[in-house]
Specification:
Strand content: 15-25%
Number of helices: 15
Strand order of the largest sheet: 4-10-9-8-7-5-6
CATH topology of the largest domain: Aspartate Aminotransferase, domain 2
Largest sheet: 7 strands, mixed
Structural class: alpha/beta
Radius of gyration: 22 Å
Bound molecules: pyridoxal-5'-phosphate
Helix content: 25-40%
Distance between the termini: 45 Å
Length: 404
């Protein structure tokens, strides 16, 4: 099936707007992606047509909304090869990781080890630091090579008898590196560790089969996957979720409550205290259904062609430093421009209508690893075109000339 980015673009109303008098070139999808009409329509339809709080409902709207909400859970489950009971709705990728860290944390002792990597987003660092600060858990970090890959020999040697958890990103939000997670998961399991994968970036660009990877937990967000904000997913193997301590307390997550004791609902509801993100779940379900109609391999090839074209046009630019050149990487270009602060680069690009992100990308340890305080980042999505790639390079060349 051929992939037609020009046709896809028309399904994203926002992409036809202008910025600073120029056509918008949106290259910030790794931070948050734009939304297709199918998602906007599904959420609007729910609000206009069939909305009430979910579960416990004895009236038609409550039952219809519950069906839509639980239907979205089934859609997510099918998308990653899981069972609906293994899918927890959270408010984002960050909350999904916090939920696992808090739950597993309750089983860890001082001196137990959690193995992370130098390329993690803060979302997959800070929750583990809580366990270090509060209960003496030891954090270890797998180093990243100069080209931006994980050092697999170091990963193996960092696994030891005290390693209880291994938590790492499937795809780096800065380097674009796609980690060999099936292999890493097998190595971690052989050492007796529980594995959590941060799939916030990978899920957007790759078909993910959690059973094939065999990770115990897999977290991702809705808003990067062309869905709404305020929704994330935690997949957990059924037996892992059953053994995990509840995260937040409140309505919906209980079996029964008395003045003396409580019992809990079964997973996944045990982890969904309070009114859940109902409309957001419906929106995410619509995003996944929409995305699933596309040939995802062709989409990834398209994104990669854009990246390769940009890289080729910038080849030999001695003022440019690119972070992350690992083989097989995804379509994320993080870079610095000699003599210019990344924030200034991003602001000047914006004058040309080009939206990129600049800063530490919530990955300060990785910035330090590469000896920079910040970088600019252009990330390519399915709706970007060859023309976008050229507009970006043209604008970047003008930006660089400004600082030269
Ligand atoms: C690799 C990675 N992990 C975690 C997150 C946090 O996800 P969320 O924004 O859904 O909390 C992000 C978002 O930038 C990310 O790129």
């Amino acid at each position: 099936m051929a992939f037609d980015a020009e046709a896809i673009r028309t399904e994203f109303p926002i992409l036809s707007r202008q910025v600073n008098g120029q056509p918008l070139v949106y290259l910030d999808s790794a931070a948050s992606a734009q939304k297709p009409r199918a998602v906007i329509a599904a959420m609007t339809r729910a609000m206009e047509h069939s909305y009430a709080n979910v579960h416990r409902g004895l009236h038609t709207l409550a039952n219809e909304t519950t069906d839509a909400y639980e239907g979205a859970r089934k859609t997510v489950a099918a998308f990653i090869g899981a069972e609906p009971g293994e899918i927890v709705f959270t408010k984002g990728g960050t909350e999904a990781i916090n939920l696992v860290a808090a739950g597993l944390g309750a089983t860890l002792q001082a001196g137990d080890e959690v193995l992370l990597t130098e390329m993690e987003h803060h979302a997959n660092i800070v929750p583990w630091h809580f366990l270090r600060e509060r209960q003496g858990v030891v954090l270890k970090f797998c180093p990243v090579t100069d080209e931006g890959a994980l050092d697999l020999a170091a990963f193996q040697s960092l696994l030891g008898p005290r390693t209880r958890v291994v938590a790492l990103s499937h795809m780096s939000n800065v380097l674009g590196t796609i980690n060999p997670v099936t292999e890493l998961t097998a190595m971690a399991h052989a050492a007796g560790a529980v594995v959590l994968l941060d799939g916030c970036q990978a899920i957007v660009h790759k078909a993910v089969d959690v059973k094939a990877i065999d990770a115990d937990f897999y977290a991702f967000s809705g808003h990067k996957l062309y869905g709404p904000t305020g929704i994330g997913i935690l997949y957990g193997k059924a037996e892992r979720l059953a053994a995990l301590r509840p995260y937040q307390g409140g309505g919906e997550m209980i079996g029964a409550v008395s003045l003396d004791e409580i019992t809990y609902a079964d997973p996944p509801h045990r982890f969904e205290a309070g009114t859940p993100p109902i409309l957001e779940a419906i929106g995410l379900g619509a995003a996944i259904e929409w995305l699933s109609r596309l040939d995802r391999v062709a989409v990834a090839e398209h994104e990669h062609r854009l990246y390769a074209h940009v890289r080729e046009r910038l080849n030999g630019a001695n003022w440019l430093k690119v972070l992350g050149e690992a083989p097989g990487k995804g379509a994320i270009l993080s870079f610095t421009v000699e003599g210019a602060h990344a924030h200034d680069v991003a602001q000047i690009l914006d004058r040309y209508g080009v939206a990129v992100r600049a800063g530490t990308h919530c990955a300060e340890p990785l910035m330090r690893r590469f000896g920079v305080t910040s970088s600019a980042r252009a990330s390519f999505a399915l709706y970007n075109t060859h023309e976008d790639a050229d507009s970006f390079v043209d604008a970047l060349l003008k930006t660089q000339a400004f600082f030269a």
